[in-house]
Amino acid sequence: MPRKIAVYPGSFDPITYGHLDIINRALRIFDRIVVAVAGNSSKNALFPIDERIALIREVLAGNDRVKVDTFDGLLVDYVLSQESTVIIRGLRAVSDFEYEFQLAQINRGITLEVETLFMMTSVPYSYLSSSVVKEISSLKGPVDNLVPPLVKKALEAKFS
Ligand code: ADP
């Protein structure tokens, strides 16, 4: 049977427990997950792409079913290049829906080969986003329940 591979694209600036929850749940369905940091998402980013990738790799160290990568250009082309036909996205509040719906329709307009699958956030992470984490951290607030310790450290280094 062919291996089932899904691509989980995003900015991951930085990775949070919300992202990790989606990755771990997706690993129950797929054999491999490619976490793909969008190269064109660098505008106004706190962490450069290589630091975001390094953080994700450290957080997921030892998990040989996860690959961490970056991509430029069309997402659907990248997905096919990874021998995958599935894009995983997470949905939090209703406010995510409009953007995600548009993105999925655009990708579907480009090719019907690639399907977008949505996973609902777990309740504790419903309001967790990288932006919220950056804001709290910049104000020296507690982020222990939001990001892994090494991401917290990296945030503190940025805002020190
Ligand atoms: P993007 O800039 O592409 O939205 P993000 O890194 O913000 O990239 O998010 C990547 C994906 O992870 C998106 O589908 C987003 O909805 C999802 N996501 C982010 N935070 C959470 C969370 N707390 N719970 C569930 N999904 C999430």
Blueprint (SSEs and pairs):
Blueprint: E1 5-10, H1 17-26, E2 32-38, H2 49-59, E3 66-71, H3 75-81, E4 86-91, H4 94-110, E5 115-120, H5 130-138, H6 149-159
Parallel strand pairs: 1-2, 2-3, 4-5
The structure holds adenosine-5'-diphosphate.
Question: How do the helices and strands follow one another from N- to C-terminus?
Answer: EHEHEHEHEHH
CATH fold descriptor: Rossmann fold
Low-pLDDT parts are none
Tally the beta strands.
5
Indicate the CATH class: Alpha Beta
The termini sit apart by 50 Å
Mean pLDDT: 95
Give the cofactors and ligands.
adenosine-5'-diphosphate
Describe it:
The protein contains 6 helices and 5 strands. The mean pLDDT is 95. It has one domain: HUPs (Rossmann fold, 3-Layer(aba) Sandwich), CATH 3.40.50.620. Strands 1-2-3 form a 3-stranded parallel sheet, with helices on both faces. The radius of gyration is 15 Å and the shape is globular. It is an alpha/beta fold and 160 residues long. Adenosine-5'-diphosphate binds next to α1 and β4.
Compact description:
By secondary structure, the protein is α/β, with parallel strands linked by helices. 41% of the residues lie in helices and 19% in strands.
List its salient traits.
alpha/beta; two-stranded parallel ribbon; 160 residues; binds adenosine-5'-diphosphate; globular; three-stranded parallel sheet; 41% helix
